[in-house]
Amino acid sequence: MDGPGRPGPRRGRVLEGLRAYGLIAAMWIRSTMAYRTSFVLMTVANFAMTVLDFVAILLMFSQVDALGGWSLAEVAFLYGVSGVSFGLADLAVGSMERLGRRVRDGTLDTLLVRPVPVLAQMAADRFALRRLGRVTQGVLVLVYALVLLDVDWTVAKVLLMPVMLLSGAGIFCAVFVAAAAFQFVAQDASEVANAFTYGGTTMLQYPPTVFAQDLVRGATFVVPLAFVNWLPAGYVLDRPFPLALPEWVAFTPPLVAVACCALAGLAWRAGLRSYRSTGS
């Protein structure tokens, strides 16, 4: 048993990983800020590229009044929540997508010999502050949606907003880590991983009513991306819930995020144990 005030081995390992992550990320931030003009240009470019996605939605609504029964303001709400949640996850652990390349060229071995958790090293590697451009764009679209929406704001709905964004970020972080773990056994699977990360956030920008029921079921019960925005948005916007689910599921994203992170952690540990050095 651990003594009073002394963290257990697992908790100590987590704290060590978070501390290492912070130090590595801070190092990359200092490196980025040494070239401020380049940083500003890259952030603006990142912002501009993500804006095009919403421009496509605006063009659709120039031809129709509703998309799957959802108004422009409601779709913008979905877009904003998805964009902010994914942007935060991409900022925090987006570098995980490089794992397959490190496995192929053998550079993962250099991370294994360091006295720092490999997950923390991979997540913070080349920490890209420019990804704030995606987060900023998502925030602006979300604010735009909230201005247009006529919502009867209750205490529960107000409190659900930050919970929704943070839980969504946690779910996407878990997807990033699980997808990276898959690359231990399939090094060329980065495009498959992107289908669940970048493809997932693109899917969530649109209402569930435009997709086949089987896809919605998969996004609810298999890879639970629906808990990022579709389900909590149903409560905030007073919309029918996908698959006729009960109203209380709108408040479960934090539990789903914790479960997803736990499963992603197990997948990561299994993948790391299965790794065999290339010897290069």
UniProtKB/TrEMBL annotation:
The chain crosses the membrane at residues 39-64, 76-94, 132-151, 163-186, 215-236, 248-268. InterPro entries: ABC-2_transporter-like. Keywords: Membrane, Transmembrane, Transmembrane helix. It comes from the Bacteria. PANTHER family: INTEGRAL MEMBRANE TRANSPORT PROTEIN, SLR0610 PROTEIN-RELATED. This is ABC transporter permease. It comes from Streptomyces parvulus.
